[in-house]
Amino acid sequence: MADNKAFPASAITRVPFALMLAGLAGAADSIGFLEFSQLFMSFMSGNTTRFGVAVSSLDWEGTTRFASVIALFCFGAFLGTLIAAWSGRWRLSVLLIIQAILFALGLTVLPFGSTAFPLHAYPIVLALGLQNATLQDEAGRSIALTYVTGSVVRFGTGVANMVLHKPNPSFWIQAPLWGALSAGAIVGGFLHQGFGPYQGYGESAFLFPAAFAAVLAFVALGLTLALPDTPYVASEHAAAPDAHPEAPARGRAPVGV
């Protein structure tokens, strides 16, 4: 475990949370895509392509729409990384509580906004950007929880490395991550269809990811209180996500490990 920079250090905690969060992200992205006229909540590659098309078409309303979402998602990743570094072993519970609050804000507080500025979507986008700083793999890299391009690429290169020698330890989670996000997207589609006709507001489907994030937050909080300073909620070597290899660890060291 000397050079395991994962957060949490134990895969027993890390992998189930990664799969559940990927599923949550898939559901939120699917609901948002259907509710906000094909605007992605977490798939910034798709939004970037649409941004380019909007600019080339002189569609300034669309340009503002996609640019603002991309910028906010990036800010979420920035903010999440700072919170992760500052909160140490409380990272899981703190980030998940913030995500649950942001999902709820999008439903209850902000107005719907305009096509150029979809205010209702902004807290969802911010929460999903922030989510990517929640967990780290064995090398200290952020686990991609809200998009699957990286997972598909790492799975393909991992298979090649199996042929050549052996894959990176994080290879084994890539296919399950893709499956979890895909399953979440399917669930999100059904939720949007179910909530829309009966409630009159398709965004009510976001109640599911909001509640699920809250449940995960309380589970993480319970684990942190019950198992302090253990690999299940902390890591001796975890610096900030995607930090330089020489960056100092910020989580509290597990005892007796």
How would you sum up this structure in a few lines?
The protein has 8 helices and no strands. With 257 residues, the protein is mainly alpha-helical. It has one domain (11-226): Growth Hormone, Chain: A.
What does this structure look like?
Helix 1 packs across helix 7, helix 1 packs antiparallel against helix 8 and helix 4 runs antiparallel to helix 8. The protein is mainly alpha-helical. The chain has 8 helices and no strands. It has a single domain, classed as Growth Hormone, Chain: A, CATH 1.20.1250. The longest helix has 28 residues. The chain is globular and about 50 Å long.
Offer a few descriptive terms.
mainly alpha; disordered C terminus; Growth Hormone, Chain: A; 257 residues
